[in-house]
Write a structure and sequence with these properties.
The protein is mainly alpha-helical and about 150 residues long. It is built from 5 helices and no strands. It has one domain.
């Protein structure tokens, strides 16, 4: 096989040193991670004004999930105030107690979301995942009367 090149094609010989070095900038070196779509509309503000110190850091989502009673009815939701009342400091008033339990439930939700997101064995639909997470978060805030 021999390609046929028309005679009127311009032929130019480049000198080895005359060819400029590529000055291409690759996207990964200049790109910034910016939220798009629904994520761009969210703000990084507090969910509610905190009147308490953050609950102890050792009460992680994983620890709280392990404290859920095994005999609990799996069909319904379970909230921290139903099984972790003994962890709440007694000097807190009603609103502070609600904030305490809300933070614990939000930690548990975040842990569950991370566990689901980390599994690669299911097809992840990010938009539905985000909607379900936001819905669960809103339900927790509503339960404790902290939805702004």
């Amino acid at each position: 096989f021999s390609p046929s090149i028309p005679n009127n094609t311009m032929k130019k010989v480049f000198a080895p040193g005359a060819t400029p070095e590529p000055s291409r900038m690759y996207r990964n070196s200049i790109a910034q991670a910016t939220p798009r779509g629904m994520a761009a509309k969210t703000t990084n503000k507090e969910l509610f004004p905190m009147r308490i110190a953050s609950p102890p850091p050792e009460l992680t989502g994983e620890v709280l999930t392990q404290k859920v009673p095994k005999e609990w009815n799996a069909k319904g939701s379970i909230y921290a105030d139903q099984f972790l009342a003994h962890l709440c400091p007694p000097e807190l008033d009603e609103e502070q107690r609600r904030q305490f339990f809300c933070v614990l439930d939000l930690r548990r939700l975040k842990y569950a979301a991370n566990e689901i997101f980390a599994r690669k064995d299911w097809k992840l639909n990010v938009i539905n995942f985000a909607k379900e997470f936001e819905k669960s978060r809103s339900i927790i805030l509503l339960r404790y009367g902290l939805y702004e």
